[in-house]
Design a protein that fits this description.
With 378 residues, the protein is α/β, with parallel strands linked by helices. 19% of the residues lie in helices and 31% in strands. The protein contains eight helices and 29 strands. The strands form seven sheets. Strands 17, 19, 21, 22, 24, 25, 27, 28 and 29 form a nine-stranded mixed β-sheet that branches. A hairpin with a 3-residue loop joins strand 2 (32-33) and strand 3 (37-38). 46% of the residues are buried.
Length: 378
C-alpha cells in the first residue's frame, strides 16, 4: 500500500461520567447534540471537510450505539473500499487483553493497525468536543515549521485555565513548556487535545512510554513532556472560533442553547462547512395554530401545539396544547403533556412529562436533567 499523507485517529472511548444520566448507557461521543447530531459528528465532519479520507475510531466504553451511528461512515463519505472509516477497539493479544489505560496507550495498542494504514502523519482527535476546524491548515502549519508535534491551542478564560493543559510558547509559537492542569497557570493558552505527529516519530515515543511502568500513558501528562525534555520541536497552532468541551451537564445544556444565539460563530447553517450525520428520514415538523414559538430549533417529526421559547427540540418531540417549555433541551421522542411547564431542563429520550407537572423554575439557576427513572439538578 502506498504511503498516505495523513490519517486521523479519533479517540471515542470516553465514559464522560460528569454528564451523569446522559452517558449512563452510551459513550460520550454518541450523546445527542444540537437537535439532530451526535457530539462525534463535529470531529468527523471536520475531517471530511478537511479532505481527510482515512479515519480510525478508537472505541471502548459502551460502544454499541456509537458503532451503530457510525455504520460504515457513509454520511461523512468514509464508505470506501480502500481505507475510509475503521473501528478499533480493545482486543486480546498474545499477552492477554485489557482496556486502554490512557490516550497514548490507546494509540500504542493499535500500532500494527495504524502501520497497515501507512501514514506519514497522524492527526489525534477527541470525539467529545464541539467545534469546526480545518485540519488541512493545521497540517500545512506543521510541515512549514518542521514540527515534531503540533498542538491545537485556544485561549480560555483565565479562571478556567487550571482545568486544561497549558502551553507556554515563545514569539514564534514554539512550545518551551507544557503544564498539565497547573494550579497557577502562567497564561490561558490551552491545549485542545488535538495533535499532529509524524507517525514514525510518535511511534518511538509510544513504545518508550509503554515501557515506562510509572507512566499514565497519556499524551498531555507523558508524551508531550517527554518530547519537550528530549528537545523535539513542538508548536502551538492557535485556533480562533467556537470550541466547547461538553464535559458537564451544565456545559452540555449551555452549548446546545448557544446554537440559538445569532452571534454564535459555530454556525451550523454554514453551507461551506457542513456538519454531517445520519438522517432518520422523518416527516416534517408540525406547528399547530395554538402554538407559540420564539427562538427555537425544532427538528423533524416534532408536533408543537404549546409554547416553546429559547429551546432545542430533537426529533419526534411532542409539546401538547397548554404545555410550556423554556430554556430547555428536549431529546428525541420526549412528550410534554398539556399544562406541564419545563424550565432550564434537559429532557432525555422517551421521557413523558405528565399533565400539569412543573420541572424547574424560571427564576432558579439550576439545570434539571430528567431520564425515565431519575432527576438530577445542579
Amino acid at each position: 500500500m502506498g504511503k498516505k499523507k495523513m490519517v486521523a485517529l479519533l479517540l471515542a472511548g470516553g465514559q464522560g461520567s460528569r454528564l451523569k444520566l446522559l452517558t449512563k448507557d452510551i459513550a460520550k461521543p454518541a450523546v445527542a447534540f444540537g437537535g439532530k447530531y451526535r457530539i462525534i459528528d463535529f470531529a468527523l465532519s471536520n475531517a471530511t471537510n478537511s479532505d481527510i479520507s482515512d479515519i480510525a475510531i478508537l472505541t471502548q466504553y459502551k460502544p454499541f450505539e456509537l458503532n451503530s451511528h457510525l455504520g460504515i461512515g457513509a454520511p461523512w463519505d468514509f464508505d470506501t473500499n480502500a481505507g475510509g472509516l475503521v473501528k478499533l477497539s480493545p482486543f486480546a493479544s498474545e499477552s492477554g487483553g485489557r482496556w486502554f489505560t490512557g490516550t497514548a496507550n490507546a494509540i500504542y495498542e493499535n500500532i500494527d493497525s495504524i502501520d497497515l494504514m501507512n501514514p506519514e502523519y497522524v492527526l489525534i482527535l477527541s470525539g467529545d468536543h464541539i467545534y469546526k476546524m480545518n485540519y488541512k491548515k493545521m497540517l500545512n502549519y506543521h510541515i512549514e515549521n518542521k514540527s515534531d508535534c503540533t498542538i491545537a491551542a485556544i485561549e480560555v478564560p483565565m479562571d478556567e485555565a487550571s482545568r486544561f493543559g497549558i502551553l507556554n510558547t515563545d514569539e514564534n509559537n514554539m512550545v518551551y513548556e507544557f503544564e498539565e492542569k497547573p494550579e497557577h497557570p502562567k497564561n490561558n493558552q490551552a491545549s485542545m487535545g488535538i495533535y499532529i505527529f509524524k507517525w514514525d516519530k510518535l511511534k518511538e515515543y509510544l513504545i518508550e512510554d509503554e515501557n515506562d511502568k510509572t507512566s499514565a500513558n497519556d499524551f498531555g501528562k507523558n508524551i508531550i513532556p517527554k518530547m519537550l525534555k528530549a528537545g523535539e520541536r513542538l508548536f502551538a497552532f492557535n485556533f480562533k472560533g467556537y470550541w466547547k468541551d461538553v464535559g458537564t451537564v451544565r456545559s452540555y445544556w449551555e452549548s446546545n442553547l448557544d446554537l440559538l444565539d445569532e452571534d454564535n460563530n459555530l454556525d451550523i447553517f454554514d453551507r461551506s462547512w457542513r456538519i454531517y450525520t445520519n438522517n432518520l428520514n422523518l416527516p416534517p415538523q408540525y406547528i399547530a395554530p395554538s402554538a407559540y414559538v420564539d427562538q427555537a430549533m425544532i427538528n423533524e417529526g416534532c408536533f408543537v401545539a404549546g409554547r416553546v421559547e429559547n429551546s432545542v427540540l430533537f426529533s419526534n418531540v411532542t409539546i401538547e396544547e397548554g404545555a410550556q417549555v423554556k430554556n430547555s433541551v428536549l431529546l428525541s421522542n420526549s412528550v410534554i403533556k398539556s399544562g406541564a411547564k419545563v424550565y432550564n431542563a434537559i429532557i432525555m429520550e422517551d421521557v413523558i412529562i405528565e399533565k400539569d407537572r412543573i420541572v424547574g423554575s424560571e427564576n432558579d439557576d439550576l439545570v434539571h436533567l430528567l431520564s425515565q427513572d431519575e432527576e438530577i439538578s445542579e
